[in-house]
Structures are given as structure tokens and as C-alpha cells.
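quick one: zinc ion bound model?
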Amino acid sequence: MPDSVLPLSSWKWQEKGLVAPDESVDEGVDFGNPLELTSWIVNQLRVSSFNDVRTIIEKHKTITRLVQLKQLREKGAVTQPKLHLDRQQKMSALAAYMTIDKVNSGPCQQCLHRKSRGPCTECVAGSNNLFNGACTNCQFSSTAAGCSFYQGKRRKDKKRSHSTSDDDRSTGRFYLTPEVLEDLTTRELERWKNMIEDELDLRNPSSARKRPRS
Ligand SMILES: [Zn+2]
Ligand SMILES: [Zn+2]
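yep, here:
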């Protein structure tokens, strides 16, 4: 534990200091109760051994929004995202989610997608100094560079003015990431593959692949 930690009550929600959920139910925190969940998260982040996590959480001691988790549907069952509060990037994303002033008005393209992995209901992005402008959900789910608010260097970045580039992600297109692929069902993948092949055939009829159509 770091040498000087601030007490949990230093952080305020609507002028009241946060109170730790009962120790005895530490792992049984009510994830459906945003104030309890938020208090539980802050209580862990404030003692984080990662400096950047503590820098973010200590910068604003007024909680600007409570953590509300998305409802995910997996094979018909409703589940909630896992938070993994041992990972630096996930902790710093949540720290920012709870405390920053949001600069975006609408959600990013990844948060709009129903398969997005971001855990929180709201899409919250800060200034470009924070996660290169990416929203906290995309930062949390390791897809910051695919966030439509991302302003950092992209792997194939040339000049920002070259917006004719095929892989320009700033156009607000949905970006296909390995995580998105992994989340798709086999049936959805097959549908996508057929759609892509059909589109390619349309664009280049001479090289249309001969493939069995069932
Ligand atoms: Zn977002
Ligand atoms: Zn995003």
C-alpha cells in the first residue's frame, strides 16, 4: 500500500463523503446499486499501487458520475461486465469515468455498437491529454485506438489531412477489432463474411469468386 492514502470520505458524491460498503460483503457488493458500487471502486483505487490511477482519482474529489454497468446479454441470460480491478488500464479508465468533466456530447461509435465491451452505460471522454481523447469505455476495453474520439497516433497514420485513407477511423465508421470479432457468433461471422464477399464481388465483378451458395 502507498505511504499516504486519503480516506475514502475525501471523495464526495452530492456533498457527502463516500462510505465503504460493509467489509464482510466485500465481494458481494451490489453491482446494481451505483452508489455502493462506486464507493467500492473508489475505495480500491485510492490505495492503488499505480501512480497514474491515483493521480486521476486524487485530482477531482467530487464524483461527477456513479458507475452504472451495462446489462449484457449472453445466450439469452443477462449478465454484467467484469471489472477486473487489478488491471492498471481498467482502473485508470474507471477513475476517469467517475471524476472527469465529459467533453463529448454523444457516444463514440464503439459505445454505440451493441457488442461493445465498455462496461459503463455512459460514453465519457475527456480532453486529448487523457487517453488521447478516447472514451473511458474504449480505454477500459483496450480499444482506445479504435475509439472515434481518439486523437493519438494510429498505427498506419500518415497525416491527419489524408482523410481519404481507407482505414481512416475518424470518419465515425464502426471499427472492426479482434475483440468485436471474438464476440460475434459463428452465424454472425458467416453473415459478415458473405456480406463482405458480395461487396467485393460487386466492386470487382471480373474476379468474382466462385463459391457455393446454399
Ligand atoms: Zn465511448
Ligand atoms: Zn470510445
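The longest helix spans residues 186-203.
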